[in-house]
Target: N5-carboxyaminoimidazole ribonucleotide synthase
Amino acid sequence: MKPPGTLIGIIGGGQLGRMFCTAARQMGYRTLVWTGGLEAPAMAVADEAIDAPFDSTEALAEFASRVEIATVEFENIPRQTLEAVASEVPLHPSPEALTICQNREREKAFLRSNGIPCANFEVVSNAEELAAAMRSIGTPSVLKTAAFGYDGKGQRKLEGGEDPEEVWKDFDGARAVLEAFIPFEREISVMVACDGKGNTAVYDPAENRHRHHILDVSIVPARIPEEHAEDARELAKTVAEALNYRGIMGVEFFQLPGGELIVNEMAPRPHNSGHHTLNACATSQFEQQVRAVCGLPLGSTRLLSPVVMLNLLGDMWPEETTAPDWTPLFADGGTSLHLYGKRRAAGRRKMGHANLLGPDVEDCLSRAEGLKAGFLGES
Model:
């Protein structure tokens, strides 16, 4: 066990790292973020920082020599960097787990090899292979880059009749995965924490709705039968255990009309759909990450209240440096605002989120939609 006072290293300095640092500080830990040379909201909260690219050998040596244990706040970190850090200090999650989750080809192969339900897929690396995969998979289908895709980026839905040569022009030079389109009824996700000793802590499923391919709201508890919720919890545990996981992770699912679950993606870190835990659960996902990484007993995942998490994107900002009028939000006594400290807003940039607690999810959702409409100038 790493006790309070330990210096924890975080690879990445975005909003997830910022909220991790806040939780760690509350628990008496110190933090050092390695930013990767990007804008780093976590630097305002961390005790120390290394503001350098992830391929810097000097930054790597400094990071590994100063921290006692390390974790990540996002997965798209060079494999060589992850392995080099892990050779010097304990890194949780492991480079092996992170390497699987950072690449759709490896992720899908992992799911298939472990008998975990996922969409039918083919890996393609040129237009000829894409044409063959389109015949095999059929349409509709979704073509996704194998690496560095998130929030709907690096993907295209194919309806049928497209010219593979033309489609591939947008993907040329990259490996990609063609997946069968899943006619889902809803999208849900489950946060699961593992301590590396066989113990797990699983949160209630969140029901997720998207806007512009980016998470819009998460509704907890998800509006599904309890037996389906339990199926999702168990399947999330199965995924984590197959990864020999330590830390917290999000598992995203498509749910079919009959209740069947298909794993869509795995996020080896805190997840946007877990932000409600900051106000509505006995242990937040960020405190849970600290506990899992440092070898503390995992905390309770008990849901304290129905909740809706509303993502606050840059299109809600009147100008890139001018925030919305938060008066309506603060007037709602059951709502908590979490801003990420980003200097400039952009159309679909995640600037913050709000957690709305209430007597039931329909009440929370109605209030969230009202706030969103006001911020977007639709009310």
About this structure: DSSP finds twelve helices and 17 strands in the chain. The first helix runs from residue 15 to 26.
